[in-house]
Amino acid sequence: MRGDGFVLPGTKRLPGVFAALGLMFLAMIGRVAAPFLGEGTAFLAALAGIKTGKSGLNALVSFYYYAFFMLLPMGIYLYRHRGAGEYIRFKPLSGRHAVYAVLCGAAGVIFASVISVFWTDFIYALGLKPGQGGFTASSAPELALLIFMSAVAPALCEELLCRGMLLAAYEDRGTVNAVMISAAWFACLHASVEGLPAEFIGGLGLGLITVFTSSVFAGIIYHTVHNSVILILNYTASSAASAAKEAATEAAAQTAQSGASAYPSLIMLGLASGLTLYLLLRRLYRSGGDRALLPPGSKAKRDVFETVVLVCVLTLGAIFYLLDILDMTVLAS
């Protein structure tokens, strides 16, 4: 492999698609196994007279999921394949690029939020009822814990998997194709119908910033900023809501009558944030030049084991999406 990221002819890229999809499969299995491990630990703690509470239970589930089903398997793989770190762009990030990553994360979270508003309205129009969202902190210490477990840890582990392992595994098919495929797997990993468009578009932005900076740490910073902003805004809104219940109830009728009038403002906000994100990414691309993108290579023959694990991951993802749809229809009523 050359220092600029191109793979020389006859050089094997690491990780392979089979290994990357295997890690993806373990991460998806963790979505089911981690809650059982967390609840089991909380039950044993209760027997010992230790109360975990809702925030403690969420922290336990996140710990088991990210530590044992994502970070540990990827760590073992990277330890056994020392050269893979170069391919997954596990490289230092300059201060200038770190600032760009923060700005992209701020613009990206606004853009994704606008998309989510329109998509959620569309879901409601179909007769589906999305859930109430994740756990919201009720105090500053809980917020700090939640940022670590729901912003920093996911950013680190999900970026190493999606923009590290998966993007590198598919990059022989061209960098642009690899970015789109890794974004699709990123959305599949979350298996949320409500979050599908925002997760896919966010995955594209995360992939591009990782490629343009040649460092997976840029994606980690972008992802951390994105998640942290959402958590902080939810915490702020929750605190304000408890102090302004009557005002919110009074304004509800007005909002119901003029809900559509907010669309033009949202569209303008979405266009502004999307344009800002585009200009930031374009600036990063120009700084990297044409060396940042690999052209599609010769089509490799798909291994039978790769096909098997691909079918397993797709089947598991389809099951999760069906369960999510079921949760918004039968279980929501």
Could you please describe the fold and organization of this structure?
There is one protein chain. The termini are far apart. The N terminus is likely disordered. By secondary structure, this protein is mainly α. It has eleven helices and no strands. Helix 1 runs antiparallel to helix 2 and helix 2 packs parallel to helix 5.
Strand content: under 5%
Average pLDDT metric: 85
Termini separation: 56 Å
Report the strand count.
Answer: 0
Radius of gyration: 21 Å
Question: What is the H/E order?
Answer: HHHHHHHHHHH
Shape: globular
Largest beta-sheet details: none
Structural class: mainly alpha
Please, what is the oligomeric state?
A: single chain
Percent in helix: over 70%
Number of helices: 11
Enumerate the spans where pLDDT stays under 50 for 5 or more consecutive residues: 1-10, 241-258
In short:
The chain is mainly α and 333 residues long.
Task: Please tag this protein with its features.
333 residues, mainly alpha, 76% helix, disordered N terminus
Q: Any chance you could write out the topology, listing elements then pairs?
A:
Blueprint (H helix, E strand, L loop, with lengths): L16 H31 L5 H28 L3 H4 L7 H31 L14 H31 L4 H16 L5 H18 L2 H28 L1 H13 L5 H26 L15 H26 L4
Helix pairs in contact: 1-2, 1-5, 1-11, 2-5, 4-7, 4-8, 4-10, 5-6, 5-7, 5-8, 6-7, 7-8, 7-10
